[in-house]
């Protein structure tokens, strides 16, 4: 694997972290009208439509995955889309957005590193451990001052449990998906099938929501939905799989620490919210931690 290939993978992971950071802001605009599960379903239905030409092309060229790979892609879709968003939004509802961001962004790289070391036998040296610790500390500095402290009760503990399950599902996806990605030269094919399978699993969950609320969306909310579907769920998932096919899962996952930084910048632009000094310090630690983890030892 050449240095140029690694750099491209790192740039892809960096772009994904930036886009997914902005997705928190875009989602907050839409969630004033739609329920979380309905927003997730609408987002991925549109994304699946956008990916349909890739699926049709693979069928015409008979470049379809094997039955075994299709089964694995279906499970990956359920893990990375259906279960992931259901657990995350439930956690946000029960535990609050601050604690949710800390657990999700902070624990995903840690769990991904542990799982990739155990399952894929990827190296997990002191440099990477230091990067993860710095990144987690940065996320804590950003998130903790913005938490709304409440009493610890059963509802809160359920939210935390959902968020931990959320990080586990994405960590398993990031680790296991590399096996499939290595079989295919075009990550878009894998991304397309995973997106469709995940969407099919989301639809039954959304039947408990009021679909008529979609017609109440404003123009700006539709723009946010299209951004979530085309960029966050479409292009970003493709680039995330591209990153995983070019760099190992720990290097890719650690860049997710940038999500809170980008989210706060987006909130400042949209609402004029000024980040605190702790937020700025945390952002610096996030960048340093990501650099530590992505840099290979000599």
Percentage of residues in helical conformation: over 70%
Count of runs of 4 or more consecutive helical residues: 11
Number of domains: 1
Give the low-pLDDT segments. none
Report the portion of residues in β strands.
under 5%
Task: Draw up the topology in text.
Elements: H1 3-30, H2 36-60, H3 67-95, H4 97-119, H5 126-143, H6 154-181, H7 187-206, H8 219-246, H9 249-254, H10 258-271, H11 277-294
Provide a quick synopsis of the model.
With 298 residues, the chain is an all-alpha fold. The chain is built from 11 helices and no strands.
Q: Could you please describe the fold and organization of this structure?
A:
By secondary structure, this protein is an all-alpha fold. The chain has one domain. The protein is 80% helix and 0% strand. The chain has 11 helices and no strands. The two termini are 15 Å apart. The model has no long low-confidence stretch (mean pLDDT 80).
Task: Name the descriptors.
298 residues; mainly alpha; 80% helix
